[in-house]
Amino acid sequence: MKKKKRDNTVFVGVRIIHGAFFRRRRRLLHDSLPLLLSVIAGCLLFLLSVLSFLYPPITNNHLHLSPFNHRIGVDVGSKLENEIVFHVPASGGSAGRDIWTSRQSNFYYGCSNASDHFLTAAVSTHPDRYLMIATSGGLNQQRTGITDAVVAAHILNATLVVPKLDQKSYWKDKSNFSEIFDVDWFISYLTKDVEIIEQLPERGGKAMTPQRTRVPRKCNPKCYLNRILPLLNKKHAVQLTKFDYRLANRLDSDLQKLRCRVNYHALKFTGSILGMGKTLVERMRMKSKHFIALHLRFESDMLAFSGCYYGGGEKERKELGAIRKRWKTLHARNPDKERRHGKCPLTPEEVGLMLRALGYGNDVHIYVASGEVYGGEETLAPLKALFPNFHSKETIATKEELAQFSSYSSRMAALDFIVCDKSDVFVTNNNGNMARMLAGRRRYFGHKPTIRPNAKKLYRLFMNRYNMTWEAFASKVRTFQIGFMGEPNEVRPGRGEFHENPSSCICESSEASARGDSKAEIQTSTSQTNDVENSTDSSEVDEQFTEDDQDWPETDYTESDVRIGRKGLPDGMDLDSGLLKSEQPVLEEIFSD
């Protein structure tokens, strides 16, 4: 009996101890469960952060994606097979050429003197004919108008009145001719070519009232003689309105050389603009022996006008779409098609990658001529990462120094024009007026390197760049850019716009002629590009995006377009209104500079 009682006591004791132990265990587990979950969650977060650091984000945003290292391959276990590394080097590497000068440039020079057959102003000017023009657009578009106005006055044997600058367009710059250009120099330099006066003379004690009219775009000499000469003979003073690209691209050699004398010699900026421009150039030279000037042209108005898309999502579409609605005559465009055809400006990052591939390292100093870049610093960040020595007139000059220019867009554009002209290498990101004018000027004064992206070919390369090594990418860039580097004879004479390719004013030195191999070498280089990449030639150059093409809805002039009507006036001209009835409203040109 005692034994049985003792066994029961032991059994009860064990049960009590067992129950106490498991109750404590359950309580401990219950109390520590939140802490355990927190530890597990922390480990998972740490693992995710490590993975996100090792692998770059996947995104289609072309504006902001800028990895210097990008790996592509197939993960098989712990081994990455077929690995491709796109690593952008800091240095430009060996480009196999002098990146700061043009080949063969020493064998060519600008030549614009008149021939012995060219009539001087003293012989040709009619005493009672006065031609006035009203320019259109920004600084460089107005420059083309001024240049062509001198030639038009010579064709008409008329006295030219100093041109009136556009003060009502997009830029709303109130500057007159003498506030941007040295008017005395302009008149005196052209004394032998065209008689120029500052204002219309009085007749009978009263100011003359000019007859206002407009000529078609690309109007040739016969067009001027048929359309404008009858008006000059009748009214004695005629003002041609919206005078931009109103003279034929192809003229005889003497008239083309007159264009060059005006553009490259007679049109000189005022002393204050030249002085500030010289200061900016000197400050860039203090920073580096060589520098690049980049006309970035990546402002919101430019992107809206181009109809291109850069991966900014619905925000970009809404913002640029709203700007585009300002111009009712613009047609809807397919952004992908525009970019495939090379009609979209490169992003700042793409410009930087192109330059690195062409041999320019991160120690190169870049002067950027640009307005407010779309996307601001976030858009510029990849370019600045590639080229940290990044400057503009606002960063190398004080607000006080720029104060006399900052309220006038044309004067600020003139400062950029000077720095870009004096740079060792000029890079343009579109084919607008400033790009054309500077390209022609740099050809005329020594063929200084002028790089224009071969956007049609580069587009496909940029899209596929992470599927190749940097070395393969850079090699293709250099191949595609042959013919787009500002070398002599890149564009056949007569092709393209004359202000960009002033072939009539480029002469070949006797040394080059004696060697007889300068043109052949360039043609051979171009031929190699054609064989490899399906014909990169001047016809493709003409397909590149040009701002001015959008401002040409009018019918270009042809000789069959002119028939002399009643009273010696051309058919289709309304003498009272002074306008051509056949003309359609012209889209305001705001994208030229």
TrEMBL record:
GO process terms (BP): fucose metabolic process
Which spans does this entry mark as compositional bias, Basic and acidic residues? 489-500
The GO molecular function terms of this record are: glycosyltransferase activity
| Acidic residues biased stretches | 539-559
Q: Which residues, by range, are in coiled-coil regions?
A: none
**Bias-annotated ranges (Low complexity):** 503-513
Q: Which residues cross the membrane?
A: 33-55
Per UniProt, the keywords (alphabetical) are: Carbohydrate metabolism, Fucose metabolism, Glycosyltransferase, Membrane, Transferase, Transmembrane, Transmembrane helix
Quote the biased-composition stretches of kind Polar residues, using this chain's numbering: 521-538
The family database entries (InterPro entries) matched by this protein are listed as: FucosylTrfase_pln, GDP-Fuc_O-FucTrfase
For region Disordered, the annotated ranges are 489-593
Under the heading Pfam families, the entry gives:
O-FucT
The source's superkingdom equals Eukaryota
Q: Sorted alphabetically, which PANTHER family does this protein's record hold? A: O-FUCOSYLTRANSFERASE 16
Q: According to its UniProt record, which protein family does this protein belong to?
A: Belongs to the glycosyltransferase GT106 family.
This protein is called O-fucosyltransferase family protein
User: Which organism encodes this protein?
Assistant: Escallonia herrerae
Lineage of the organism: Eukaryota, Viridiplantae, Streptophyta, Embryophyta, Tracheophyta
